[in-house]
Amino acid sequence: MSSIIGFPRIGQNRELKKALEAFWAGKCSQSELENVAKELRAKHWEAQKHQDFVCVNDFSYYDNILDLAYALGAKPARFKELSGLEGYFAMARGHAKGVACEMTKWFNTNYHYVVPELSENDNYEANVDSIKSQYAQAKALGLKPKISLIGLFTLFGLSKIAAGEPKAIFTKLKNAYLTLIDEIAKLDSEVVVEFSEPIFVRGWQSDTPQAQCVYDKVAITEVYEAIVKKGIKAIVSTFFEHSNELTEVLLGTSIYGIGLDFVAGSKNTKALESIAKSDKVLFAGIIDGRNIWVADLDSKLKTLESIAAVVPKERIVLTTSCSLLHVPFGKDDESKIDPQILSWISFAKEKLEELRVLEDLFQNGVGGANKGFFESNKAINAARRTSEKTNNKAVRNRVSANTLKARNIAFKERIKIQREELGYPDLATTTIGSFPQTPELRALRLGYKKGAITKDAYESGIKEYIKDCVAFQEEIGLDILVHGEPERNDMVEYFGEQLEGFVFSQNGWVQSYGSRCVKPPIIFGDVARPKAMTLEWIQYAQSLTNKIMKGMLTGPVTILNWSFVRDDLPRSQVCEQIALAIADEIDDLQKGGVKIIQVDEAAFKEGYPLRAENIKEYEAWALECFKTSTAVAKANTQIHTHMCYSEFNDIIKTIEAMDADVISIETARSGNELLKVFKQVGYTHEVGPGVYDIHSPRIPSVGEIEAQIKALLEVLPKEQLWINPDCGLKTRKWEEVKPSLKNMVEAVKAVRGKL
Ligand code: GLN
Ligand code: ZN
To answer: 561 with 601: CB under 8 angstroms?
Structure first.
């Protein structure tokens, strides 16, 4: 048997995105939106027709966690009077009645879920309508549905406790959840539900207020026993890592099946003996749901055989390692990727096919109906392993021979030299890099890409923009200027497009949140930089001013973490290759007269492993890669880095070890509380804590920023502080950016005057 945990819902051509945005803009009715949803579900089930079940309720208008919270009546008080889709989208996107719920990353993926807010004053209730209608749709099509439902423990663990005692809230939520299960049980004579409980892979290391309830073995047993008693055929699945601590607990309950990830959680094999001794069906996550490479069926079969050596074959169901939400729909529309590279790629639809074939090979041997498929799969994988495209000798040799892995002059001496040569004041003002991306700018880039605009016209358009940016920054008196990044639509794609070893799909969209999709670059081969990527623009910008122009690069760890990465090399090695490409760029920039270079690591923290036992290893190589990329910088080249978050408590030592001369971070939304950790550890490098929040259109006043700077000065001395917004300004409008930055510079002047 085979089945999946979930299918991408945004649609082959992002139909859901388009319908949602039309609906929000008042250009399509609710029933039109519902029809699009219906059609999408039917199409996605059609793709699953060879599986033993089709997934129901993996569909969502925005997010599954939100769906479940909403179905349980877990609405923040500010939206209490709202109902239906209005209340639902209010939680996701905000409403006149109040701000949206927060959004955060779904484990270590780039998918964001809406964080439910729970409070002791809530009264939960169950509403099964949405699940019921989806179930009925599948039944009417003659399909065998399996309901995908977020498990109670994962829901509770990922929520935010707005007010009250976690235990009391948990009990209330549990009661509503079990009522929902009652309603689900009524849908059919026997309803199959797959409960996703990825929170169980975190083991016991969680310091949230909910942890006690989430990792409570007695509660887990009680809840799943209750669910089974209600007549549900329950499968509980974990993914993204192993869940050995809690697998044992689940095996002690009466659930029907247990789903484990054998791709990202290879240690799950430790549970096989216990599974064999139990009566559970094992849903073995064998096809990678996170990556886009053709499965090596031969090696997958070997893994399955080793599992089957312990657990009887008839109790094994093949499945994907996690929901296919994290990969694009299918590769039918890709016509621009080199055909050989395309043959190595497998998106969701292709993965379903792999699963179907693998199931046949596993049950009936490799000599049967799918012999041809198996042989060609072998050939594809062999070609990929040996292709010149994936093996660039020069790159490999360079990585293994590289000894320049850190700057050779200590920070203390470097900073003296830099201060002297660069001559910037205390509380130096700067920005994070990008300036507003206007519709005209987007049209210019798109026109150029499509060939509608000539190279000359494009370049003069970009230069115009840079000119305006520089003039504005000079006018308001910023200390260190930037060129504004008008030539970039994305901080990773811009570099990926110029590096060897990357390809870009035309239609490989993956949902990031709600209607927002991203098209991650695909790293298929060894990475090298044929020529300078940013030098000309920075030099042009520098030619317009006597002030210092800061060069802008994206760091190796961020490029890695926001791409689909080849799986035939360790991530650390791929990252090392990118690091050397970035090092080349830094060297070109400094030789070209650029004095300050910022290497953004917006996604450094995102790459942290889910389990504590793996953190050291990640930190070691990620750190080494960042240092390798910046090691070429001379003592008088100042290296900045930027990170889009503020929680540094756990990682401050690693941040310090990155050895960037200046780090800008996001503290605007959290005040100077979070900065204190820098003081506590005796952090000596320079820091630019964001003094205002760029995620909001609000214009901060001079007084407000002044107060913020004073608060910063209570924690760190003026010599150590830089003043900047908390992230790039590309998503803002000029009308917001101009007065905000003006006020920022005014505020700094005022503070300096009083020092
Ligand atoms: N330099 C980038 C910008 O300003 C940094 C963006 C980011 O860190 N997300 O847009
Ligand atoms: Zn940022």
So the answer is: no
Residues 6+ apart with CB under 8 A from 702: 743, 746, 747, 750
- Closest residue CA from atom 6 of ligand 1: 728
| Residue the block writes with tokens 């049209």 | 443
Catalytic residue (choose from 50, 326, 483, 695):
695
The helix (H) or strand (E) run that includes residue 707 is helix 702-715
Indicate the domain borders of the chain.
15-327+337-385, 412-754
From CA 16, how far away is CA 266, in angstroms rounded? 35
Q: Does domain 412-754 have CATH number 3.20.20.210?
A: yes
Q: Is 81 exposed, middle or buried (0-12, 13-18, 19+ CB in 10 A)?
A: exposed
Report the pLDDT value the prediction gives residue 646, as an integer from 0 to 100: 72
* Among protein residues, the one whose CA lies closest to atom 10 of ligand 1: 728
Q: What is the chain's Cα-based Rg? A: 27
pLDDT in tens, 94-147: 999 998 999 999 999 999 999 999 999 999 999 999 999 999 999 999 999 999
Q: What is the pLDDT of residues 309-363, one digit of tens each?
A: 999 999 999 999 999 999 999 999 999 999 999 999 999 999 999 999 999 999 9
Distance (angstroms) between ligand 2 centre and the Cα of 221 equals 42
Within this chain, domains 15-327+337-385 and 412-754 share the same CATH topology: yes
User: 645, 727, 730, 741: which to mutate for ligand 1, most atoms within 8 A of CB?
Assistant: 727
- Distance separating alpha carbons of residues 335 and 1, to the nearest angstrom: 33
Domain 15-327+337-385 has CATH 3.40.50.300: no
Three-point CA angle 674, 678, 682, nearest 5°: 155
695 is catalytic: yes
Q: Which of 165-174, 203-212, 229-238, 550-559 has the lowest mean pLDDT?
A: 203-212
Evaluate: CB of 552 within 6 angstroms of ligand 1: yes
Q: Alpha-carbon distance 605 to 35, whole Å?
A: 40
**C-beta of 737 in contact with ligand 1 (< 6 A):** no
What does the pLDDT look like over 364-410, one tens digit per residue? 999 999 999 999 999 999 999 999 999 999 999 999 999 999 999 99
Q: Which two tokens mark 737?
A: 């950016």
491 lines ligand 1 (CB under 6 A): yes
For ligand 1, atom 3, the nearest C-alpha belongs to: 728
Ligand 1: which of 481, 489, 491 to mutate, judged by most atoms within 8 Å of the beta carbon? 491
